[in-house]
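seq:
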Amino acid sequence: MSWVKKAIVFCKQKKECREVLEKVEGFLKKSGVLTFDVPAAMPVQTPYDLIPESDFSSTLLIVLGGDGTFLSAVRWLGRCGIPVVGVNLGSLGFLTEIPRKSCIEELRKILEGFCIVEDRIRFDVTILQDGKVIFQETVLNDAVINKGAMARIIDLQAYVNGVYLTHYRADGLIISTPTGSTAYNLSAGGPIVCPTARVAVITPICSFNLTDRPIVVPTPFEIEILLASAGQEVFLTCDGQVGCALELGQTVKITLSSTHLRFVKPLALDYFEVLRTKLKWGQSMEPMKFTSSAPPSPSYRNE
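struct:
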């Protein structure tokens, strides 16, 4: 018996997406799952408008698209806690892990309970001015502070848990979740972090000081970034989709959100396999076969 009683399918209104949508919805209806179709472009209703809160634990949000669509879907979900799974109709697809060709087979396994539900941390991002909140957003991937098209290097002061960290002179700064470590953070030279870790990564973008390096901060944390540049265009962007201009005297505060994302993935899907596939690691050599669960110990002999 399936643990999923209701499903929300979040999808772009493109021809290729509509084809997969019809296929997925047909499968769900045959499986006895009540299905709701939500367009990604302008989702008018909220999850609370579609489904009673008491049914959230037996509801699955299925995202059809790329990672951008997945991030839009998570922002639409807000804090309701409905588990999410992604079917990749885009290019890279770190968040939408299920391939298009095998989506029905993998969804069938998920409905039967053959899946893992991971807790992925999110960050609350707030802009404060004179103690007042003027902007607030919750992110799954990252918060990015960067300069405008014509701006020079910007000056940013960083504090962690009230303690001064450093003064960045750079094109910008990325504060990434473990899930977002394979996004902009990776392109800027930041580390890849296992997505279930409970840390934040602070990565400068093209720092003027060549000794500036990414730093990993454990939870609990409160990261504060103060803009120290006057008269420049500086922006805060959340998950690459929403944000606002940042002005002198304002503080960006990043904290661990009280609501996590319940990320659903098939049992057969391994995170390191995803990395090898997406980043094309180890293409030139087959992995060694071990006869036991642990790799053999090195042997030494005296010459």
